[in-house]
Amino acid sequence: MQEPLPPFVVETGFQSLPSQETLRIACPDEEQTLAGPGVEKLNYHTEGMQRLARFASDYFAPPGNLAEQIYQTQLVQARYARQIVETLRANNTINRGILLWSGNDFWPAAGFSMLDFQGRPKALYFYARRFWASVLICLGQTGPARNGYIVNDTPSPLTAQARFQLLDIKGGILDQSQSPVSVSPYSTASITLPRDLLNPVCPEKSILHMAVYQEDVLLSENTYLFTPDKYARLRPLDMDITVESIDRRSLHYTLQSRWFVKDLEIVLDPSAALSDNFFDMLPGRRYQVRAEFPECAPDIRHPLILRSSCRA
To answer: 36: Cβ–Cβ under 8 A, 6 or more apart, which residues?
Structure first.
């Protein structure tokens, strides 16, 4: 029997590791290793790192190093929150609010925050900006139908077009549908998706892309895999990147991938405030990211590290 939805959630959250830069405050570089005691002692939960590893294994293959482990734990935290918030927002006639625990952290450890001890955003920070947007399109998480939902948390009525596409890894359209939607202020509209969109022939090679447009202006979009990342046939990163200097402290990155990318993470050294991170990429589309550095921006030829949920 399915549990009833709560009218209000006062606290929910999940742990994740902070960035390696933040770990250095409490853990020397030589101890920053996968399953190293210097990192594991910073997890105060009863089950410690075993708990993080258990939940990460639902999505991912075992990490090969500490950087991968940090990436995986942050995505588990972000996806857990996304599922909870999307489910409750899609049922906003029952639920009227949720509080995530927490905003920031008070020490450099495996905490529940979306900003770590030094204010560096985790994956949850960027996820939250998307799943708490005023207009949201999402997939129902339970039930045989798994309807699509358009949430309108604005004071104005919304008349728009919802588009649903079943894509392959290369971005080819396997199936698609669209539907006009009209959503009252602070309300939600439900759309029953065609069965074929939710039951691909090759689930490990398929992606569901959902988007809502108003006069060809994209208001919200979402993507869903049909299998855990470790089973999905995601390809290694292969993209074109151009960099433009904006001013003394800022660089502008344009990225375009040849394949679908799940949860791209951009890592810069020196670190910078990024306009977006931990986002999915559709093949052929250009994505814009602005980086603002605390002091002078490095040369545009300065290398950047990219990670995705593909291990290859």
So the answer is: 66
Residue 13 and residue 120 in one domain: yes
| pLDDT tens track for 73-112 | 999 999 999 999 999 999 888 888 898 988 999 889 899 9
pLDDT at 145 over 60: no
Do 13 and 100 have their domain in common?
yes
Give the residue from 131, 153, 181 where a domain finishes. 131
Q: How far is CA 4 from the centre of its chain?
A: 26
Q: What is the pTM of this model?
A: 0.95
CB atoms within 10 A of CB 21: 15
- CA distance linking residue 50 with residue 20, whole number of Å: 19
Choose the weakest-confidence range: 26-40, 75-89, 173-187: 26-40
Q: How many domains does the chain have?
A: 3
Distance CA 113, CA 227 (A): 27
Instruction: Compute and round to an integer the Cα radius of gyration of the chain.
Output: 20
CATH of the domain at 177: 2.60.40.10
Do 35 and 141 share a domain, yes or no? no
Bridge partners of 265, per DSSP, are 307
Domain that holds residue 16: 9-131
